[in-house]
Backbone:
């Protein structure tokens, strides 16, 4: 039955390919179309928490700085900046050619020039409790109150003051939370700003029927130019649809009704990819594949909090048992057979490839070692006792969890799998209701501190991201030192030491480091890929025959 179903899907796809013809209207030649299966909840950058919202906000807004595809921080609205010797004061010098989009609430509907005071109001709004922005944490290091943290000595100078040096701060400022908005329009629009946005970005808002379609039009007055002097962006418009069924979206991509497909879904992965992770040759005439390391780390976590009762959790508190699980399954086989070789086996600790502090020579984690598993179980006094654990996950990762369940079973480790809806599973993990769980961490900003913060004892969930409740005095001291270390090489050495400590104590089982996958129709060029999986269409161009 499975073979027959897959056969009919393939026949349908081939039929759609043969029937899809060229675009019929002239307008479509400069429209870039993609689908957002998860939906978009807001076009206000204060609520750009998930990837869908971030992509949309990246079309509409700019900040002081941005990260390029190599994660280097480069100027955006700030043409340059100075950092004080003590690392606590950042002074940004703003461009004078940046204007907000035209908006009905502006006098005569025309946008105005961005001033430093707009950044003061924009950033103060993020930390205002009444805004309830999920991004308020990005300014945790700034000197309070807000009027001490953010100042505008003149219209072209913006100053931020921190309580203490924090080298990753520039990277944090590249997040969409830190976009500039016209505060006067926000005050007039109130909560309606989420659906009546106004920014400075390469595209401006045109139309949004929630759950159906979203359209952005080219910003003809955008401030950036290419190397030949042509104003960006090249596209006339961006159109977003909201098909919830990912296989249906894949079929629309095959028919030519979508120009872009992001990520990999089990419903079509074996159709579009070879077992080795390359584009299926039969699609070469229709699209191409971009791949790059993704700052998304997939892992299993153990809840180590000693306030929780014994039972099955008693095994989890034994570090040798946790190490046995780390050694007890073959990550390379898992990636090869379940993910078509997409991703890198997680054998180098919690810090993924793509970050400057990542070094395969400095860190060796856990690979598949059956003899080590048996030895550790014997030393832990668990040999022959068939220890039981329950692994909480979601349906999207059930195949991976079953693979691990089977391999651990060969060593007498009995793993029960509890499948929960995504929101339920996240709540259970955040509130310390499960002892063993699957989780992932996508970097908010390009610095290893982002991952190591998962194990800092002051970040215990639910108020912080330390879901394992791991604690180690030496790790904490190194973490606090690294946060204030301005020299990047010294900071990277501290990061690597923390990574080794954390892996030795084994509060997590790193599964794999993910990859960004982008399938793009051959008639589009200029769309790159980056480790934070940000969709940047400023230089996207449609080529015509």
Residues:
């Amino acid at each position: 039955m499975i073979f027959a179903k897959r056969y009919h899907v393939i026949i349908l796809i081939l039929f759609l390919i043969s029937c899809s013809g060229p675009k019929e209207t002239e307008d479509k030649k400069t429209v870039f179309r993609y689908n957002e299966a998860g939906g978009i909840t807001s076009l206000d950058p204060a609520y750009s928490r998930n990837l869908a919202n971030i992509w949309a906000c990246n079309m509409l807004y700019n900040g002081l700085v941005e990260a390029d595809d190599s994660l280097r921080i480069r100027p955006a609205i700030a043409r340059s900046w100075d950092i004080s010797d003590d690392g606590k004061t950042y002074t940004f010098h703003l461009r004078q050619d940046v204007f907000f989009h035209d908006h009905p609430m502006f006098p005569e509907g025309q946008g105005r020039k961005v001033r430093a005071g707009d950044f003061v109001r924009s950033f103060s709004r993020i930390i205002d409790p009444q805004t309830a922005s999920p991004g308020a944490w990005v300014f945790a290091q700034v000197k309070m109150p807000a009027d001490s943290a953010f100042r505008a000595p003149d219209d072209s100078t913006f100053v931020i003051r921190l309580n203490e040096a924090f080298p990753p701060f520039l990277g944090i400022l590249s997040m969409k939370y830190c976009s500039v908005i016209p505060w006067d329009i926000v005050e007039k629009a109130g909560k309606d700003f989420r659906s009546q946005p106004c920014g400075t970005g390469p595209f401006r808002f045109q139309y949004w029927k929630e759950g159906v379609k979203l359209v952005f039009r080219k910003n003809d007055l955008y401030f950036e130019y290419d190397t030949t002097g042509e104003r960006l962006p090249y596209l006339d418009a961006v159109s977003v649809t909201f098909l919830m069924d990912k296989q249906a979206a894949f079929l629309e991509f095959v028919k030519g009704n979508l120009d872009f497909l992001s990520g990999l879904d089990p419903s079509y992965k074996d159709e579009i990819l070879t077992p080795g992770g390359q584009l299926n040759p039969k699609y070469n005439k229709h699209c191409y594949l971009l791949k790059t390391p993704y700052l998304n780390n997939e892992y299993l976590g153990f809840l180590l909090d000693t306030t929780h009762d014994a039972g099955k959790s008693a095994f989890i508190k034994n570090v040798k048992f946790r190490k046995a699980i780390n050694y007890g399954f073959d990550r390379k086989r898992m990636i090869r057979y379940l993910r078509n070789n997409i991703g890198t086996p997680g054998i180098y600790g919690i810090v993924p490839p793509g970050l400057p502090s990542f070094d395969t020579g400095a860190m060796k984690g856990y690979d598949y070692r059956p003899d080590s598993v048996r030895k550790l179980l014997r030393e832990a006094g668990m040999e022959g006792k068939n220890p039981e654990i329950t692994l909480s996950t979601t349906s999207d990762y059930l195949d991976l969890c079953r693979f691990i369940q089977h391999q651990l079973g060969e060593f007498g480790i009995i793993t029960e799998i509890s499948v929960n809806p995504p929101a339920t599973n996240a709540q259970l993990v955040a509130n310390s209701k499960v002892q063993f769980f699957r989780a992932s961490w996508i970097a908010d900003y390009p610095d290893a501190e982002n991952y190591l913060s998962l194990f800092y004892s002051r970040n215990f969930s639910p108020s912080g991201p330390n879901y394992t409740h791991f604690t180690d005095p030496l790790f904490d001291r190194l973490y606090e030192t690294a946060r204030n270390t301005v020299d990047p090489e010294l900071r990277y050495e501290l990061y690597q030491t923390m990574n080794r400590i954390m892996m030795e104590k084994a509060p997590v089982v790193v599964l794999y480091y993910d990859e960004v996958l982008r399938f793009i129709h051959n008639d589009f060029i200029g769309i790159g890929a980056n480790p934070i999986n940000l969709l940047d269409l400023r230089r996207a161009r449609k080529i015509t025959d």
